[in-house]
Design brief:
mainly alpha
């Protein structure tokens, strides 16, 4: 069926051959300037509309041509890249330019500072921030960037003083900046004075988190851990407790809490943090611990970590049918289909999962290139699990696709028909009906195709194929000579 559809679309797309294009004459300098001005205007308009990626694309050719790679082009490209987060590109564009302090009010140096901070090049950021502020000592933005760079380089007292100065220059966000200053202030009285100047309820609500951060920044990890725990930041608290001691007894206690937390319900983000903490602090893990880590990694979408954990736990004969299914699924995501097929085929319980696993195992064989073995496994699924709707329907549908790929359209239509009629509640049923009808249409059976397209629209009106089925029903009725029926469909 696939080859017939391709032929149909190709015939519909055939038109007159294009005329040979004339080769353009090399532009003179005036044309280059006009073209560049037009490109820069379009890029500025894209930025004004909030489309920085479009601006970057518009400027790409200009940056490649030495005649149009002007400071204006480079600065605008860097600005565009900064707005979509392309900080590596910002540094590549600006780092070697001699004009970064003399043109555009030194804004290029500001972009370099921000880029270095984003990429955690903290010492480089500090150099850029100091030079940027030297060019404009009254800029609140530049003061804030310098304060951030100083804090990143562990010059906390200087960072706090600079951030307090920045707050006076940026009144609209002054209270948030004072919070940042408090986070790097060692003296509790000085922090209290900063908190006392905060009146807005939103930044005021963040004071407890700032206090915990301040204790962490100043090296009092035990107190920071206690405060984070009170705020419900359990993973951060556990991380700091581990970092605060090398004694085996306290670390063993933390280890127990970590795996208890890992066994509970976690968001994907929390699971990733906890797994990273476990692997950095407690490796190597025992088999039971590996199983917990693998389950959490599977739920969090960490396929590689899940596969590693399940393999280690499986060597100790730990885990359930659900665990083996998750292991095989992780292998599939890693495109290790041959191994995945083996694991899928080992799932025996529960029976509903065994049926689904048998189908996925067969599909893994097909994806691995073992098409003959995969076909046999799919047939076994249709025979052994014929009462299990989704696995059986999925197996028939894949068999139909394979037949279609082999240009066995009669067999493909038969298999699609089984899916549509025997498993009408399956998610594959509407698509199977559509493909079966299309095969009939392309095989010179327009009336039969029209009836089947109509039936699809009637049986599955909410499906993605319903609207297309009505259109193709019109095409089929027209091909069958019934223009009245065709117009009614259209």
């Amino acid at each position: 069926m696939t080859h017939l559809i391709h032929l149909w679309l190709w015939l519909a797309a055939i038109g007159a051959p294009p005329r040979p294009a004339r080769l353009p004459m090399p532009p003179d300098s005036g044309e280059v300037r006009i073209t560049l001005d037009s490109t820069l205007s379009a890029a500025r308009a894209a930025l004004a509309r909030g489309r920085p990626w479009q601006a970057t694309r518009l400027l790409t050719d200009a940056l490649r041509d030495s005649t149009s790679r002007t400071p204006a082009t480079i600065f605008l490209a860097a600005k565009a890249a900064s707005e979509w987060g392309g900080w590596t590109e910002v540094l590549q564009l600006l780092s070697q330019e001699p004009w970064i302090d003399s043109l555009y009010e030194g804004r290029a140096r500001v972009l370099l500072t921000r880029g270095a901070l984003e990429l955690r090049a903290d010492s480089v950021a500090l150099l850029h921030a100091m030079e940027s502020l030297r060019r404009d000592p009254s800029s609140g933005e530049r003061l804030m960037l310098l304060g951030t760079a100083l804090a990143r380089n562990s010059a906390r007292d200087s960072a706090a003083a600079v951030l307090v100065r920045a707050a006076t220059r940026l009144p609209s966000i002054a209270e948030w900046i004072r919070l940042r200053a408090a986070a790097v202030t060692a003296d509790s009285t000085a922090r209290a004075n900063l908190y006392g100047s905060i009146e807005d309820p939103l930044p005021k609500s963040r004071i407890p988190w700032t206090e915990a951060t301040a204790y962490e920044n100043t090296g009092n990890l035990v107190e920071a851990a206690r405060r984070y725990a009170q705020l419900g930041e359990h993973i951060t608290s556990l991380r700091l407790r581990i970092a605060s001691t090398s004694d085996s007894a306290p670390r063993a206690a933390v280890r127990g809490e970590v795996f208890k937390l890992l066994a509970g319900r976690l968001s994907p983000g929390a699971a990733r943090q906890l797994i990273a903490l476990i692997d950095s602090a407690f490796a190597p893990l025992g088999p039971a611990e590996e199983l917990l880590a693998a389950r959490a990694a599977s739920s969090a979408g960490l396929a590689s970590r899940a596969a590693t954990g399940f393999a280690r736990a499986g060597s100790a004969r730990l885990g359930t049918g659900e665990d083996r299914f998750a292991y095989a699924t992780a292998l599939t995501r890693l495109k290790r289909n041959r191994e995945a097929a083996v694991q899928f085929m080992k799932v025996r319980t529960p029976s509903s999962l065994a049926a689904l696993s048998a189908y996925h195992g067969a599909r893994a064989l097909v994806r691995d290139g073992q098409v003959s073995r995969g076909r046999k496994a799919l047939v076994q699924v249709t025979q052994k699990y014929s009462r299990e709707i989704e696995p059986a329907a999925s197996a028939y549908f894949l068999l139909a696709d394979l037949a279609s790929d082999d240009r066995e359209d009669v067999e493909a239509r038969r298999l699609y028909g089984i899916v549509a009629k025997r498993y009408p509640t399956s998610r594959f049923a509407p698509t199977a009906r559509f493909r079966a009808a299309m095969i009939a249409l392309l095989s010179d059976q327009p009336k039969l195709a029209a009836q089947e397209f109509d039936l699809l629209a009637e049986r599955h009106p909410a499906s993605d194929e319903a609207l297309g089925a009505v259109y193709w029903a019109g095409r089929a009725w027209a091909a069958a000579g019934d223009s009245i029926a065709a117009r009614s469909r259209w």
